[in-house]
Amino acid sequence: MKIRSLFIAVLFLTMCVKMAAQDKPANLASGADPFSASLLGPDDQLTIRVADVDEISDKPVRISTTGFITLPLAGRIHVAGMTVEQLEQEIAERLDPYVNEPTVSVTRMEIRSQPVSVIGAVTSPGVHQLQGQKTLVEMLSMAGGLKEDSGYNVRITRRLAWGQIPLPNATDDPTGKFSVAEIPLPDLTDGKNPALNIPIMPNDVISVAKAEMVYVIGDVGKSGAIVLGGRQQVTVLQAVSIAGGAAKTAKTKQTKILRLDPASARRTEIPIDLAALLAGKVDDVTMQADDILYVPSGSNRNLTTRALESALQIGTGVAILSVRP
Predict the structure, then answer these.
(1) CA–CA separation, 154 vs 212, rounded Å?
(2) CATH entry, 213-322, from 3.40.50.720, 3.10.560.10, 3.40.190.10, 3.40.630.30
(3) Is the entire prediction scored with pTM above 0.85?
């Protein structure tokens, strides 16, 4: 009786281990390289050919959301996490009792099991499929690269089933299901720290936030937006310089900052004597995110705040004057 009980216990433990392995992400359950281009996963489409077995050959097979396929004679097979070569061997072993030396060929026709979402201030946001090993820079490139108004950080969200993101600042989210980390984009794109160019895993979410900006409009060389970056600040004189300077016809003494009040959603006017600033008679003024610096001219000195905002949006197209001040 003791031997029989021990056998039952071992059998039960073995079944539990197999079930747990199936619940893991496909790449981890198999122990295979998670970046292998030939890894199979849910929703991938296969074409399987077996010599002299017409019931199987050349018929499209879609892997189920739980990672299984079902074939005549071979039965139901959990293929998620296998390589193409492993699946060929598994099918051959299952067909061996029915077919003399079965020759099996598996072709992966469509990959849909390794989605990565790239969202935010990139040229082509959307869902992209990992096909082989891809790094963060490669995924951003697949999304068309960064837009001019991109911020200074990229945020990575990863399912903890794949392990924590391999960065010192990675933290777990409150649900305990995801690892989250932020990466400074200048250090990543300039190659200052190659360790930031981390490998991307299936189901990662890559988010590039839009940068905070200040705007310059009116009688200047070129109206538009200036991207604020991280801890960097932009002063009135810097903003005017980036915008090509004030025109000779500008009413520099009547310059103003239009600052948004979060409480009322309205803009307040802050008078700026640009002439005195240019002459070095007063201290420069630091601008805040979303400020509009208006340099009037003789022809439009009476424009209202609402008209200024409309002019900024319609007249300039919110051109980016300087991506990195």
Answers:
(1) 14
(2) 3.10.560.10
(3) no
